């Protein structure tokens, strides 16, 4: 009997010691220096400072690259500066979440400036794309890039990361609501990118998906934070950190909403937000 109690106590002590060790490693690290050892395989995301109300993100994992949107005309300069800094002369994939000018025009001009891409991903069929796509198609043909339509339920591979595609499939809803929402999973860590899917789009996703499909450590707030997130959507996602593609002074309701829930908030107008994960924890910094 005593031996059984001793073994149970020992097992409990080992468990508590392991939990204490894990607790020493924060899920989100915001220290000045990168906490990952050199050579550690990482998933990386760059949320570019493209001014007020422009989406443009570079994702990288396992040597593969994915550019999501590219902001409005003129934003391509900031994208090109980042690509040059990272030593990238071409991209494996570009993805447009929807055809609004502040999401597609910068990407079009990036191609016009001679940057190559292997695959362009879009929620539209070529024969049903909005007029903002008109200059895109000849540039893709010139670059020898494939045009691929993606939709709800598709899963993309980016190195060892997986990108799950969600989309409001109700054709009566507007373009913002039906923009592509992307959940990126690497190891145990999850990033949720909301494009412009606020309001109707978020409520539709709550109807279409299970709560575990939407839970994420970090999420990019929908529609540049212009309107706050649907409260129940935030309750389901339960993020620890949020990125807003705007200036703090322009999205007061979103600021209050995030602060009320004690969600760490980053605003791209204050500088490019960089985050990396080894699959167990995140490192987030801003410059």
UniProtKB/TrEMBL annotation:
The chain positions of domain Metallo-beta-lactamase read: 53-248
Presence of keyword Iron = no
Q: Which Pfam families match?
A: Lactamase_B
Q: Which SUPFAM superfamilies match?
A: Metallo-hydrolase/oxidoreductase
Identify the keywords attached in UniProt to this record, alphabetized: Signal
According to the record, the signal peptide region is 1-23
InterPro entries, per database record: ComA-like_MBL, Competence_DNA_uptake, Metallo-B-lactamas, RibonucZ/Hydroxyglut_hydro
PANTHER family for this protein: DNA INTERNALIZATION/COMPETENCE PROTEIN COMEC/REC2, RECOMBINATION PROTEIN 2
Annotated protein name in UniProt: MBL fold metallo-hydrolase
């Amino acid at each position: 009997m005593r031996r059984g109690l001793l073994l149970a106590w020992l097992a409990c002590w080992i468990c508590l010691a392991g939990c204490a060790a894990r607790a020493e490693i924060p899920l989100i690290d915001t220290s000045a220096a990168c906490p990952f050892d050199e050579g550690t395989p990482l998933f990386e995301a760059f949320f570019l400072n493209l001014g007020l109300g422009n989406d443009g993100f570079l994702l990288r994992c396992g040597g593969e690259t994915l550019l999501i949107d590219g902001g409005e005309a003129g934003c391509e300069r900031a994208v090109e500066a980042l690509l040059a800094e990272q030593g990238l002369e071409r991209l494996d994939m570009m993805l447009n979440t929807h055809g609004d000018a502040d999401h597609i025009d910068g990407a079009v001009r990036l191609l016009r400036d001679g940057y190559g891409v292997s695959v362009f991903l879009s929620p539209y069929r070529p024969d049903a794309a909005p007029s903002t796509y008109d200059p895109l198609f000849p540039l893709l043909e010139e670059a020898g890039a494939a045009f691929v339509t993606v939709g709800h339920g598709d899963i993309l591979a980016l190195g060892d990361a997986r990108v799950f595609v969600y989309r409001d499939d109700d054709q009566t809803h507007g373009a913002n609501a039906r923009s592509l929402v992307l959940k990126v999973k690497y190891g145990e860590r999850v990033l949720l990118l909301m494009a412009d899917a606020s309001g109707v789009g978020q409520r539709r996703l709550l109807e279409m998906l299970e709560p575990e499909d939407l839970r994420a450590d970090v999420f990019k707030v929908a529609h540049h934070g212009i309107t706050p997130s649907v409260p129940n959507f935030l309750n389901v996602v339960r993020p620890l950190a949020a990125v807003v593609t705007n200036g703090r002074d322009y999205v007061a309701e979103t600021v209050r909403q995030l602060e009320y829930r004690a969600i760490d908030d980053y605003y791209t107008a204050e500088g490019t937000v960089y985050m990396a994960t080894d699959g167990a924890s995140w490192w987030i910094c801003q410059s």
